[in-house]
């Protein structure tokens, strides 16, 4: 299994809603990542988890809250988002943090904030 | 500041021709470079990589060339097919291992 699975594929939420994005991998990877990608732009790193601990937060607003319940799962909790947060949210995983360039990406969650 | 960028935003090629996608990087400490392909509605997909101690690496129909002197990276696709139509990103990692993507170029293959 060389897949990174993200759910849901699409999400529409209001600015007062609370929702969560989920990511799962069963490759035994110990590093997992959240990226944000706006249309026609490259992915931008948000968070890095290494061995289930948050190792990098790229100055992401607190309305985005990551969680790594175990080595296979990564969540992104969303609360009080703004319309400009609408984007494709990508999860990725790699063997370890040093192997970030060899990461496998999921298909993303297309988020629309209304 | 440090950046990874591409020279052209779009590239249109005839099916069967070879494609060359170029990328410039500015971080001289970068030691690992990757090309990704992203199709519509999908996440980036690893195509090929190269480390800084090499100047050329070949895969199936793809070749990556690295010129460290001028900080230039290129992706060559032989016999381009309609399925190659996508956005291509170069990316690099340096000593801090943070993966930084370039701006992306759209490859459009004409039948």
Task: From the structure above, extract its key features.
heterodimer; A: 114 residues; mainly beta; four-stranded antiparallel beta sheet; B: 111 residues; six-stranded mixed beta sheet
Task: Give a structural overview.
The complex is a heterodimer of chains A (114) and B (111). Chain A is mainly β and 114 residues long. Chain A is 0% helix and 56% strand. Chain A contains no helices and eleven strands. Chain A has strands at residues 4-7, 10-13, 18-25, 31-37, 44-50, 53-57, 64-70, 73-79, 87-94, 104-105, 109-113. In chain A, the strands form two sheets. In chain A, strands 2, 4, 5, 6, 9, 10 and 11 form a seven-stranded mixed sheet that branches. Chain A starts with a strand and ends with a strand. Chain B has 111 residues and is an all-beta fold. The model of chain B has no long low-confidence stretch (mean pLDDT 89). In chain B, strands 2, 4, 5, 9, 10 and 11 form a six-stranded mixed sheet that branches. In chain B, strands 1-3-8-7-6 form a five-stranded antiparallel sheet, with no helix packed on it. Chain B has strands at 4-6, 10-14, 19-25, 32-38, 45-51, 56-58, 62-67, 72-77, 86-93, 99-101, 105-110. The A-B interface holds A 4, 40-45, 56, 90, 92, 97-98, 100-108 and B 32-34, 41-46, 49, 89, 91-93, 97-99, 101-104.
List unreliable stretches of 5+ residues of chain B: none
The most extensive interface between chains reads:
A-B, 21 and 21 residues
Note the run of SSEs of chain A as H and E.
EEEEEEEEEEE
Number of helices of chain A: 0
Task: Report how far apart the termini of chain B are.
Answer: 40 Å
Residue share in β-strands of chain A:
over 45%
Percentage of residues in strands of chain B: over 45%
Based on secondary structure, the structural category of chain B is mainly beta
* H-E order of chain B: EEEEEEEEEEE
Largest sheet of chain B: 6 strands, mixed
Report how far the terminal alpha carbons of chain A are from each other.
Answer: 36 Å
Cα Rg of chain B: 13 Å
3D shape of chain A: globular
**Oligomeric organization of the protein chains:** heterodimer
Question: Rg of chain A from C-alpha positions?
Answer: 13 Å
Structural class of chain A: mainly beta
Share of helix among residues of chain B?
under 10%
Query: What is the residue-averaged pLDDT of chain A?
Result: 94
Number of helices of chain B: 0
